[in-house]
Amino acid sequence: MMKRRGLVGGLAAGAAAGVASSVPAPAIAQSMPEIRWRMASSFPKSLDTLYGGADLFCKTVAELTDGKFQIQLFAAGEIVPGLQVLDAVQNNTVECGQTPTYYYFGKNPAFTFGTALPFGLNARMMNAWFYHGGGHELVNKFLAKFNVYGIPAGNTNCQMGGWFRKEIKSIDDLKGLKFRVGGFSGRILQRLGVVPQQIAAGDIYPALEKGTIDAAEWVGPYDDEKLGFYKVAKFYYYPGWWEPGPCPHVIFNLDKWNELPKLYKDVCHTAAAQSNVWMMAKYDHVNPGALKRLVAAGAQLRPFPGEVMEACFNAAKELYAELSKENPDFKELHDSVVAYRGEQYLWWQVAEYTYDTYMIRLRTKA
Amino acid sequence: MMKRRGLVGGLAAGAAAGVASSVPAPAIAQSMPEIRWRMASSFPKSLDTLYGGADLFCKTVAELTDGKFQIQLFAAGEIVPGLQVLDAVQNNTVECGQTPTYYYFGKNPAFTFGTALPFGLNARMMNAWFYHGGGHELVNKFLAKFNVYGIPAGNTNCQMGGWFRKEIKSIDDLKGLKFRVGGFSGRILQRLGVVPQQIAAGDIYPALEKGTIDAAEWVGPYDDEKLGFYKVAKFYYYPGWWEPGPCPHVIFNLDKWNELPKLYKDVCHTAAAQSNVWMMAKYDHVNPGALKRLVAAGAQLRPFPGEVMEACFNAAKELYAELSKENPDFKELHDSVVAYRGEQYLWWQVAEYTYDTYMIRLRTKA
């Protein structure tokens, strides 16, 4: 049956309590104290999809509280670097942040599940798992160990595999490949001989141009186009199997979160749900045009060969088995996601996938 | 660039205006008058996904306004029958409703675009079109002629093709087939010899059992299971090409909507966006289990044969061309959706579809 806890759920369950036939003005004032918080984003303003989701969140929170609860948003680097948002929220340098939790896989690989498991759930499945499948509760059970509360607040949808200077025709082509790749998936690719590189956004282009690295992945057509990779590495691979439905969270210092009036918590949950569907829709809206421009500018689209996908999948499975043995947080989240994935694709392949297949064939025939 | 109007948009654009450094209590009271409205749903309470989306909407509106703006929800038939929600809202019998606009295709076939165009956009693409592709504005330009304002507030995701007493092996099997099918798509199927039947939910099962009809479609595994069709018609076809991403709207009497304080309009937009992502996630969550139970109970899954899909697609195209000639509302919305569909599948087939394909193959291999 319907889960009516957490996230969207707690809100509905508690609604009746908030409904009185007449609420005098002083009660409203009490439940709506003036609060000013700061939010540190992991993203620059130029990413109007990712950063835009946090911007919409903060504006909505202010608007729905008649300006009483204001969260001022800061781009990556303005208060703390993009990769230190969790730490800043954990120690209350800022009360809240917008970040993909997988940036912190170095602290604990279980951080990956808040954002994306390589070969995990697609974007819609992530929402099903978060809102109704216990994912939100499991992720927050883990985040609480870092004194943080998180709410899903967007999705990039399935990402691209990145820009390669040379074609990848077999798993041999991965050996020694210097690849700028985000976070946790580097540990999978290492097993196939890739040399993963952690490079901040602004430094990727020159590294790729000079040949210091052989390949780089970022997000998808719309965001990648801005960074100009197509000018120096023309093979554009897909799919980004390490990020099938990546979700940035808004995160809150747990003590500060617990101090919020219930009304403001509800506003945050609802505003985050709006940012979630808004961002998914925006990526779907802007990616087709960007893809066409990239191809017109010379980008060569290439699917990863089947043997590469299979080798990566097997390497991922091995890594997950090892981590599950040594890390109970990882095991709990992994078991939940993998079981959920099996159920989801069982259904997905029927109506949804068959319809998309038919429409894609029609398109390419026409 | 980002659309910051309408729907989610207007909200963000107007946020700055609502932000004052100190808002005295009387101002809040003024902007939050006590309002009691009624909402008529087209759905029964037993559909905890569809009806549940409206329920969450009403509870959220009350909660976020501290109980000042309360909308009481009524199931289909409690105030007006499910198919008369638009009329009831238009003439202010109730201030608002929850309904799929395509129920009213008899008034004007352009009503179909608010919910689903056969062979149109999938669920995620619907959101991209609504939120960022001008769909919300175009649908409301049309709805305004009926004195109604609508906001997308959910999605069933791609539906199933329905329950058939006999297998459909060729287009000849459609001739004379008495098929209970929702709304507008009957006009397409008629061209192939189907005899479409309009039958209310509760009457479908006995009609199918007695053989008064040969087939019936409803929604998908979770909702269909409740109606028990698998006991009397074992062939369960897919995909429901006439409903690839159907969106129920919350609709408001336009005069009443215009009287709402801006804060309450913003609350409605944000709450509807939450219901949207909540319902999509809920259908994805509950359908896999229902599908397994149905198959265990004897349901035989069947894809529509390629020639049937092609004949239906061609019949749809013919109908759309005819309607576009005679109906400028239909033409404007149709041109927008069809152009958008071409762009969307161009991108969808790359990362998203390739990833899903790989994961589905893995699943069936394992």
Account of the protein in words:
- Two copies of one chain form a homodimer.
- Chain A is α/β, with parallel strands linked by helices.
- Chain A has two domains: 193 residues, 3-Layer(aba) Sandwich (D-Maltodextrin-Binding Protein, domain 2); 125 residues, D-Maltodextrin-Binding Protein, domain 2, CATH 3.40.190.10.
- Chain A is built from 14 helices and eleven strands.
- In chain A, strands 7-6-8-5-9-11 form a six-stranded mixed sheet. Chain A has a five-stranded mixed sheet with strand order 2-1-3-10-4.
- In chain A, helix 1 packs antiparallel against helix 11, helix 6 runs antiparallel to helix 13 and helix 12 runs antiparallel to helix 13.
- The N and C termini of chain A lie far apart (44 Å).
- The interface between A and B is large, with 107 and 107 residues.
